[in-house]
Amino acid sequence: MITISADARDWEPLKNSRDVAALEAFRRKHPSGPFSEQALHRLEDIRKQQDDIARRQKEQADAAARLKEAERANAAEAEKKKNQEIQAIRGVIEQYAKAFESKRLEGCSPCGRGCRDRHRTR
Fold it and tell me: In the chain, which ranges are continuous DSSP H helix?
């Protein structure tokens, strides 16, 4: 009859596990057993993978924040440019209106309707 040691029996369901708590419990229960070193390496691999995942997630979150900030800056710049264009157009319209009004008034002093030629023919 083959007897299986307690640590081998406990290690079998954990050898491919990603359960950190269970692997740590195994190491506490069997600190000097033949599978303790394997459990330690398994824990180190899992923690390294978790650290890598956390690092990538942070990098992605940072990149997303930078992208969002760039989009905000671009939107603010576009709004500023739009407002400048609106002001420029308003300025041109005001200049045109002043020029038109002064020509209209110069052209027809008798009635103020821009009909100077009609007044000459009368």
Answer: 6-11, 20-29, 36-107, 116-121
56-83 confidence digits (pLDDT tens): 999 999 999 999 999 999 999 999 999 9
Is the Cα dihedral 12, 16, 17, 23 positive or negative?
positive
Model confidence pTM above 0.70 = no
Residue 20 contacts by C-beta under 8 Å, 6 or more apart in sequence? 43, 46, 47
> Per-residue pLDDT tens for 33-59?
889 999 999 999 999 999 999 999 999
Question: How would DSSP label each residue in 3-38?
Answer: ---HHHHHHGGGTT---HHHHHHHHHHSTTSTTHHH
Q: Which residue from 3, 45, 5, 13 is spatially nearest to 25, judged by alpha carbons?
A: 13
- 8 A C-beta contact, residue 52 and residue 36: no
The token duo for 117 is 């030629």
